[in-house]
Amino acid sequence: MISMREPAVAGSFYPEEQDKLAKMINEYLQYAKVDETYSKEAKGFVAPHAGYIYSGRIAAYTYKAIYQYLQHKKVDTIVIIGPNHTGAGSLIAVSDEDWVTPFGIFNNDHEFTRALSKIKGIDINEAAHEEEHSIEVQLPFIQFISRDFDIKGVFICMLDQSYYSSELLANAINKVKEDLEREIIVIASSDFNHYESAEIAKSKDLPAIEALEKLDMLKFNDIIERVGDTACGFGPITVAGLYAKMNGASRGILLNYGNSGDINNDYSSVVAYASLIFV
């Protein structure tokens, strides 16, 4: 019997009542406008993972793009990669559990998960996922837009976000996808710069985003390190970008960028958010 990963942040990061959650996500998706010309050709996606009141409107741009993609392309499995904020568990940890949200059970692609775990450097480890929010907050959006499709998930938490680990993971995902003949999409979960003024956050984030628009993942990592950008999921973003390049993507498109000050009017110390696609 497969065990369940129960919600850790329902009721805090997003509503735990199904009707309130559906209403909120639907409103955000209605607000988001994305050019379908690009989204139907996307190979990778980036979405923020803060509380929905802060980052939900920006995340909705990514999920509008994914919804449009699903109208054109068959998808078997969505691979969601998030950073490890808690420090628990292994360096690259996949979950072998099915995940529960207020919308119900989101099934794990266990065959894909277990194939990944056979690659050196990648482990099945539930401790990394137990209290981690970066993957969980993506799931209600995914369930809402994919409710008419039979899609499973692969859940990966990165404690080691080095370029080496990002490359290893991107190659592993691509190999397993080909070995199992899966149609997949890859979502990177990340916020951008943290707890500086909106002006400083923008001055750090925009050069990094420009590197993503050129799909230059080495330069992206170099900028993050050089300017001290505290984007928490730079490793997952790197994985998504490298995977997209392997599958024919040539550039990134910034769909939306903002920060927590847009909601609470405090621009002196913000968390910044971006939605991107790789096409």
Question: Could you provide a short overview of the structure?
Answer:
This protein starts with a strand and ends with a strand. It has helices at residues 18-31, 36-39, 52-72, 110-117, 127-130, 139-145, 163-180, 198-213, 217-227, 234-246, 261-264, and strands at residues 4-5, 44-47, 77-83, 92-95, 98-101, 104-106, 123-124, 152-158, 184-189, 194-196, 252-259, 270-278. Helix 4 (110-117) packs across helix 7 and helix 7 packs across helix 10.
Structural class: alpha/beta
Q: Please state the CA-atom Rg, rounded to the nearest Å.
A: 17 Å
Helix content: 40-55%
Structural domain count: 1
Broad CATH class: Alpha Beta
Total DSSP helices: 11
Counted beta strands: 12
Q: Spans of 5+ residues with little confidence (pLDDT < 50)? A: none
Order of helices and strands: EHHEHEEEEHEHHEHEEHHHEHE
- The average pLDDT is 97
The second-level CATH architecture is 3-Layer(aba) Sandwich
CATH topology: Protocatechuate 4,5-dioxygenase, Chain B
The span between the termini is: 39 Å
Brief descriptors of the model:
3-stranded mixed β-sheet, single chain, Protocatechuate 4,5-dioxygenase, Chain B, alpha/beta, 9-stranded mixed β-sheet, 279 residues, 11 helices
Structure overview:
With 279 residues, the chain is α/β, with parallel strands linked by helices. The protein has one domain: Protocatechuate 4,5-dioxygenase, Chain B (3-Layer(aba) Sandwich). Helices cover 43% and strands 21% of the residues. It has eleven helices and twelve strands. The chain has helices at 18-31, 36-39, 52-72, 110-117, 127-130, 139-145, 163-180, 198-213, 217-227, 234-246, 261-264, and strands spanning 4-5, 44-47, 77-83, 92-95, 98-101, 104-106, 123-124, 152-158, 184-189, 194-196, 252-259, 270-278. The strands form two sheets. Strands 2, 3, 4, 7, 8, 9, 10, 11 and 12 form a nine-stranded mixed beta sheet that branches. A three-stranded mixed beta sheet has the order 1-5-6, covered by helices on one side. A hairpin with a 2-residue loop joins strand 5 and strand 6 (104-106). The model has no long low-confidence stretch (mean pLDDT 97).
